[in-house]
Amino acid sequence: MTPQELRAFCLSFNAAVEDFPFSPEISVFKVQGKLFALSHLDARPLKVNLKCDPDDAIRLRREHEGLIVPGWHMNKRHWNTVTADGDLPDQLVRELVEDSYDLVVAGLPRADRLRLDRP
């Protein structure tokens, strides 16, 4: 996955926005003000921090050793750092980004979730 593909995919979700609260180099993708992906898109290798179910996080780290690791500078129980331009299939990276978005949306207040469901 290229940086441009990762950015485009993150922004393809309903109400997703890109922000730069930490520095101009760090893209933070949010929905309703809540972070679901964080990446230094110019870094090599390309890595992205993604929210993950704690049980899935452990399984993914075990199955993809070195490519999916505990989230760098994040809560290690709920976040993974995923190497997006390495040996992981692009489809898996997309699924992990989508799962992260879905987890964040599920944690939003009901009114916010309902607004996101409207066209």
TrEMBL record:
Recite the lineage of the species: Bacteria, Bacillati, Actinomycetota, Actinomycetes, Kitasatosporales
Q: Which GO terms describe its molecular function?
A: DNA binding
SUPFAM superfamilies in the record: YjbR-like
Q: Which PANTHER family match?
A: CYTOPLASMIC PROTEIN, CYTOPLASMIC PROTEIN-RELATED
Which organism's genome codes for this protein? Streptomyces djakartensis
What protein name applies here? DNA-binding protein
* Keyword set includes Transport: no
Please give the Pfam families that the UniProt record associates with this protein. YjbR
UniProt keyword annotations, A-Z: DNA-binding
Q: Does the keyword Hydrolase apply?
A: no
Q: Which residues form a coiled coil?
A: none
InterPro entries, alphabetically? YjbR, YjbR-like_sf, YjbR/MT2646/Rv2570-like
